[in-house]
Specification:
CATH architecture: Beta Barrel
Radius of gyration: 15 Å
Number of strands: 10
Distance between the termini: 14 Å
Number of domains: 1
Structural class: mainly beta
Number of helices: 0
Order of helices and strands: EEEEEEEEEE
Largest sheet: 6 strands, antiparallel
Helix content: under 10%
CATH superfamily: Nucleic acid-binding proteins
Strand content: over 45%
CATH topology: OB fold (Dihydrolipoamide Acetyltransferase, E2P)
């Protein structure tokens, strides 16, 4: 199971211009630390820093996940339209 640590509930904003209509938009990113493994399946000594798109509430506002320990939900891994294995991270609180 892939473990993820969140140390801050702050979101970073990154402006960008929409390719669709040229309007100014904003990405909301949260820094997380993913505990990865080497090619032999051994845990790497340090977690790796990654930025994920913030989840959205029912109204569409960005929401940061709280500080804590998480795991990658099994539905995060899927086969894309080209038949390739892909990942769209969905985090759930770790048990225990």
């Amino acid at each position: 199971m892939i473990q993820v640590s969140i140390h801050s509930d702050q979101l970073r904003q990154q402006p960008y211009k929409s390719k669709k209509d040229g309007s100014q938009q904003m990405l909301h990113l949260q820094t997380v630390y993913v505990h990865t493994f080497d090619r032999n399946g051994q845990p790497n000594p340090y977690p790796e820093k990654v930025e994920l798109f913030a989840e959205r509430d029912q109204v569409g506002n960005p929401v940061a996940l709280p500080v804590g320990k998480y795991v990658l939900h099994p539905s995060s891994i899927y086969v894309d339209q080209n038949g390739r294995l892909s990942v769209a991270p969905k985090l759930v609180p770790a048990k225990g």
